[in-house]
Amino acid sequence: MTKRDLENLKRLAVPPALAEAKRAAIAAALVAFDAVSDANVQFKNSTQGSAGSDRPMRTTSQTRSFFMGLASHQNMAVAASLAVLVIAAPIALKTYQDERTRSPDWPAPKPTAVAAVPAQLGKQPSEEKKQERLTPAAKLDSKPFPDNADFQEKTEAQPSVQSLDGRGDKLGSASSAANLALDGLLAKPAAVPPPPPPSHLAAPSPAPAGLPNGIAGFDAGKAARDELSNLPARQLKFGQSNLGMPNSLASVEPPEASKARPSDEERDVFNAPDVNPVKQAATEPVSTFSIDVDTASYSFMRRALNSGHLPPKEAVRVEELINYFPYSYPAPESADPPFKPTVTVMPSPWKPTDKLVHIAIKGYDLKRAERPRANLVFLMDVSGSMGPEDRLPLVKNALRLLVDQLQPDDTVGIVTYASGSGIALEPTKISDKQKIFAAIDKLEAGGSTNGAGGIADAYRLAEAGFDKSAVNRIILATDGDFNVGITDRDQLTSYIERKRNSGVFLSVLGVGQGNHNDAVMQSLAQNGNGTAAYVDTLNEARKVLVDEASSSLFTIAKDVKAQIEWNPARVAEYRLVGYETRALKREDFNNDQVDAGDIGSGHAVTAIYEVTPVGAPRLVDDLRYAKATAETAAASPSPAAATSSGGRSDTAELGYLKLRYKKPNETTSQLISLPITDELSKPTITDVPQDVRFSVAVAAFGDIVRGAPYVNGYTYDDVIALAQSARGDDPYGYRAEFINLVRLAKSARP
Amino acid sequence: MSEEKDETLARRAAGGCRASFALLLERHYDRVYRLAWRWTGSQTAGQDIAQDVAAKLARAIRTYRADAAFSTWLHRIAYTTTVDFLRSNQRTVAVDPSEIVRLIDSASSVPHDTGAAHDDLWNAVRSLPDQQRDAVLLVYCEDLSHAEASAVMGCSEKTVSWHVHEAKKRLKIILEAVD
User: Fold this and answer.
1) CATH number of the domain residue B35 falls in
2) A525/chain B closest Cα distance in angstroms
3) How confident is the model over A411-469, as pLDDT tens digits?
4) What's the pLDDT at A454?
5) Is the CB of A12 inside 8 Å of chain B's CB atoms?
């Protein structure tokens, strides 16, 4: 039977590798391949380069001939320096010898093959002749280097870029020439041809992390960009670690934005709730939900739209779109109660007979001095898939920005995980900034690290620096790989279970698109005591980690739940816009055991109800046999109303808002309540504050994009007009960006 | 063009032809990944290893000579890389995302179901002593003869046969215990 089982083994399905992983691997290998080529050529021409120089050697590259008439191109990404040469050549030999010792029939080492260099290259042969040969190839596909001006400058003068897509033609025409050439060369492969360009497996990428318009005036932006432009050359010096996919790959691996296709997005997994239905106040007067301050859906949508696609409907969570924006709603005066609700009633812009009830909650903004100390541990995914610019390099830059914002007394630790895990930085005080920056610089995707399990290490570091009065938080930065490297499943289970209540919170910072496992991310963030954010640009990272650092890091109220009881005498129908994944049962509201969302320092949370007043045109007809419900309800309140508000039959109130929350260190909840009266009502939408109006525009947009059936007739142009009227100060350009996105949505393909 | 033999492409890549090298990677990545997955049982590890192999190949290809079939040659790199990986990561196991969610959210936990019907067999094979595991996987999954496997593993053909024999005895015991 064993025999039979074993025979079966090879037929058992192997879960396929992600296409992205394959692309990344090939891109990594091609860079390594080019590095060897460069090293070889430079060995002879060493006078041309000096260690640390990232100047391109134009003369060299142009005089090099590609021996079969194929495109010749100096690989700028690996801007070969002597350092590369010195490292790469011996390594190539070493790897090779290592392997040979393991395997006797390995081809015999011929060091010359590695180190030897075409003596004739770069020296004598007439340049013009070679130039001529290069010309046709140069026309093939000359894509400028993506990502930074520095590269572009270097690339301009270069001949062709060879694209894999076109390999059929090019290689085909080349192959006969190649065969001829090979005859002479095989025995003596000394004539190593110059390296072709980086692979350009697909289109080039836009600027690093696609810095959006709002970046202007952002000091760190320049520094960060400089940082980025230095990366490739610098990385390559470490690049001999073959697991280590140098960051320069980002220029090879196209960011998803530039080529996101539905097929890529299909890999993202989303929870797909139905749009909240219209409910009748007479039969179901109470609506309960948990506060949600996540914003991941907005960044995801932006990414899709920027690449010309509408996001999948199920990826649009309207409450996350609304809550993405900073709003300066009226804030509480003191920390107790920690937040303040403000309700505004206005006519619905898309259905004038309806009203919108806008509930704005603003958290108390802790002043810097009042902030607790922060004890942060970053658990960084450094697996190969984190290589592209919009992943690990983005997280690194974001981390630098965050470090700049923290107080000298705060601590930061870094734990990495990939195939193994390691501590990249023991918890270090912000006062020792240089040490922290040095550790961040060293992080590399794929860098082989070994050690105990990442998550266990992270908890250990957080615990070592645990301070009861501080914010103790682990921030997991990943593109969706949760191979956190643990020793033993049971051990991890008990470990996390023990930590859960010890006060170490968890946040998730999602990056990358394509294998970004949205459902897992959200579920992680909602169920752990943390927030999830999806970060696709440096501007976004700054928003999440710096501007909102205090909100994300310093929770001022937890398990915040909202419950609204509608007065059937005034309200016939209502629907909650968004919050589908956050719905709670009515009885959960008073149950302190039921978990809900947290509010951080200075957070603004918005919820919008669309209500149809009694007497206005409705979507749901009255039941024929239940008799005029509104009248009955007015006369003798429904049992529900009777129990919770003492059976008032007041017609002055539309409804009654109740908010329940716990203070961060408490286990019993407190209640805030507020009647929704006619005094809160504004005659037209132009009378409401800009912040309120803007959030309504965002809500409308979300509903249009996800095809909710309640905004019929309201168009993208209407959204733009409404948002334009409510741009306000907009110091970082978030609102301007939103308006741009709406324009993009008009032309986006589904 | 795509019909070009591996060996031809490999020789060309050894001479520095980038396109040939890229084509080879394109062709063989999946096979390398599958091998890595069979040994490790993890998609993530499989991808990492496959990437590692591809990067190694970039250097090693320069030394490729036509005296070995390319696929055998690549096989060996893939195998040694995988085994090295396992050796240096013995303490680490991959965790499924849903498993992590379950661990972190005990309240609404959904029992973790791997969904794979043959987990027992894979686990049993992977729990074998290294050499027995290697012999079994090379022979039964990678379709190598005992002689070829011995070349890859760097031992004699007899030793391979013995490992396979021992492995079968052991698997029988393990799998019966599972039943």
Assistant:
1) 1.10.1740.10
2) 9
3) 999 988 775 567 888 889 988 888 999 998 888 876 444 434 677 788 888 888 888 77
4) 75
5) yes
In a domain, B146, yes or no: yes
Q: Are strands A555-566 and A286-290 parallel, antiparallel or unpaired?
A: antiparallel
Residue B109 lies in a domain: no
B9 shares its domain with B70 = yes
- Scanning A480-509 for CB atoms below 8 A from B yields 480-489, 492-493, 496-497, 500, 506
Kindly state whether A10 is in contact with chain B, defined as any CB-CB distance less than 8 angstroms. yes
Tell me which residue range forms the domain holding B143: 116-179
Residues B75 and B128 in one domain: no
Determine contact, residues A107/B67, Cβ cutoff 8 Å. yes
Whole-number pLDDT of residue A270: 59
Express each pLDDT in B109-163 by its tens digit.
Answer: 233 333 344 667 777 787 788 888 889 888 888 888 888 888 888 888 899 999 9
Query: Cβ B15–A383 below 8 Å, yes or no?
Result: no
Token couple for A253: 């691996």
φ, ψ dihedrals at A689, nearest 5°: -60, 155
> Does the CB of B173 have a partner CB in chain A at under 8 Å?
no
Percent of chain B with pLDDT over 70: 79
State the CB neighbour count (10 A cutoff) for residue A60: 20
Is B107 part of any domain?
no
Inside any domain, residue B72: yes
Residues of chain A with pLDDT under 50: 42-267, 447-452, 485-490, 493, 515-516, 524-530, 629-645
Which range has the worst mean pLDDT, A195-204, A585-594, B49-58, B168-177? Answer: A195-204
For residue A359 the two structure tokens come to 């509930």
- Is A171 in Cβ contact with B1 (below 8 Å)? yes
The helix-helix angle for A734-747 and A296-306 (nearest 10°) equals: 50
In chain B, which residue's Cα lies nearest the Cα of A187? B65
Phi first, then psi: give them for residue A269, nearest 5 degrees: -105, 130
Residue B2, chain A, CB below 8 Å: the answer is: yes
Residue B2 shares a structural domain with residue B89: yes
Same domain as B130, residue B85: no
User: SS3 for A94?
Assistant: helix
Nearest to B154 among A3, A31, A103 (CB): A103
Q: Give the bridge partners for A422, in sequence order.
A: A416
Pairwise CB contact (< 8 Å): A12 & B58:
no
Which residues between 451 and 480 in chain A have a beta carbon less than 8 angstroms from any beta carbon of chain B? 452-453, 480
Query: How close A691 gets to chain B, by Cα (Å)?
Result: 35
Please indicate if any CB of chain B lies within 8 Å of the CB of A415: no
- Count the domains in chain B: 2
Cβ distance A10 to B140 less than 8 Å, yes or no, reads yes
* Burial class (CB within 10 angstroms; exposed 0-12, middle 13-18, buried 19+) of A414: buried
Helix (H, G, I), strand (E, B) or coil at A421: strand
Token pair 């090295």 in the structure block, residue: B84
- Structure token pair of residue A203: 């289109």
Residues of A in Cβ contact (< 8 Å) with B38: 14
Minimum-distance CB partner of B57 among A29, A193, A595? A29
A722 is written with which tokens?
A: 């409404």
Beta carbons of A189 and B76 less than 8 Å apart: no
Domains delineated in chain A: 19-255 (no CATH), 279-366+555-747 (2.60.40.1230), 372-549 (3.40.50.410)
CB A189 to CB B15 under 8 A?
Answer: yes
Q: Apex CA B39: angle with CA B33 and CA B40, to 5°?
A: 85
CA–CA dist A154, A149 (Å, integer): 9
